[in-house]
């Protein structure tokens, strides 16, 4: 007995949403983008008109696909969207333990097989490092998006759980970079290791010389980090041997850009846009055969 499968706006088997092949006539592409970092998981929905919504939740590798769905579907509905409109997904994660539940979320609740950002995909540029599989997906995504927007040579500074400096040449090739402890990790380590030093917030002090403990700590954290940023940017440029553009991303990028003239551009959504660009370059994967059979019998 034959069954008619309701695609609900999805591309037919083997078609891709944002990639090289086009969907059927009258079909509107809508992409679910998932950026799973060490601190937060960011979800966003993108169609051919632009970003329709962005939401974030604390990273918890034990959070199940059903828990994600209860939270995310409510927000998607509040934005005037329907889960049935989503017809492709892409995931970038630096937390391998979170991938299982995020992939299940895409399969079980959105009925799409997500594209997973990894070094073996078509990035459109060379990855010139000793072991490309060791490079975090977020760093490659920042390189992809940063070069598309600004060209090269380029340094991308990402203020996340770790602060990373990634180097891209004129052609877009990824050359490697630098990984430093993130500012919040530094603050927490200072508090934990020194019993009399309190936990402090991050802010730009009015003066470098602090006249009590907290202002002195805030100065050390902020201006010390500015010194790290400027020192590494200067050394990278000197080693590269020529002028380079500098773009910053991450939640703390605007704060630190206030303290230095070396950061030229701030792009808060660089990683999300990198995921979109990656989805455009690569064919959308198909759902596993057993999942397809289940949909056909529903």
Integer average pLDDT:
86
According to CATH, what is the topology of the largest domain?
Nucleotidyltransferase, domain 5
**Percentage of helical residues?**
25-40%
Net shape: globular
Strand order of the largest sheet: 3-2-1-4-5
CATH architecture annotation of the largest domain:
2-Layer Sandwich
Which H/E pattern describes the elements?
EEEHEHEHEEEHHEHEHH
How much of the sequence lies in strands comes to: 15-25%
N→C terminal distance: 14 Å
Fourth-level CATH superfamily of the largest domain: ATPase, nucleotide binding domain
For the largest beta-sheet, the strand count, sense and barrel status come to: 5 strands, mixed
- Please give the CATH class of the largest domain: Alpha Beta
Low-confidence stretches: 1-17
Alpha carbon gyration radius: 21 Å
Give the oligomeric state of the chains in this entry, treating copies of one chain as homo and distinct chains as hetero.
single chain
The tally of structural domains comes to 2
Tell me the number of helical segments per DSSP (H or I, 4 or more residues long): 8
How many beta-strand runs?
Answer: 10
Structural class: alpha/beta
Task: Give structural notes.
The protein is built from eight helices and ten strands. It is α/β, with parallel strands linked by helices and 298 residues long. The longest helix has 28 residues, at 213-240.
């Amino acid at each position: 007995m034959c069954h008619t499968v309701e695609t609900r706006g999805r591309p037919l088997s083997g078609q891709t949403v944002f990639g090289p092949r086009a969907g059927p006539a009258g079909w509107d592409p809508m992409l679910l983008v998932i950026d799973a970092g060490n601190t937060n998981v960011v979800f966003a929905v993108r169609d051919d008109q632009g970003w329709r919504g962005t939401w974030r939740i604390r990273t918890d590798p034990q959070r199940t696909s059903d828990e994600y769905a209860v939270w995310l579907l409510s927000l998607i509905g509040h934005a005037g969207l329907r889960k049935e409109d989503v017809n492709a997904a892409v995931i970038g994660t630096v937390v391998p333990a979170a991938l299982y539940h995020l992939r299940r979320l895409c399969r079980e609740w959105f009925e799409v097989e997500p594209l997973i950002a990894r070094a073996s995909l078509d990035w459109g540029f060379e990855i010139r490092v000793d072991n490309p599989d060791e490079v975090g997906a977020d760093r490659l995504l920042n390189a992809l998006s940063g070069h598309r927007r600004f060209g090269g040579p380029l340094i991308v500074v990402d203020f996340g759980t770790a602060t990373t400096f990634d180097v891209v040449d004129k052609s877009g090739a990824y050359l490697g970079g630098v990984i430093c402890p993130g500012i919040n990790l530094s603050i927490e380590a200072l508090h934990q290791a020194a019993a009399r030093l309190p936990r402090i917030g991050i802010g730009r002090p009015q003066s470098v010389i602090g006249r009590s403990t907290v202002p002195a700590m805030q100065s050390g954290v902020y201006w010390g980090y500015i010194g790290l940023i400027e020192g590494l940017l200067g050394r990278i440029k000197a080693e590269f041997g020529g002028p380079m553009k500098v773009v910053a991303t991450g939640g703390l990028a605007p704060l630190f850009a206030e303290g230095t003239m070396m950061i030229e551009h701030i792009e808060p959504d660089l990683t999300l846009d990198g995921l979109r660009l990656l989805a455009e370059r690569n064919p959308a994967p198909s759902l596993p055969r057993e999942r397809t059979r289940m949909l056909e019998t529903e």
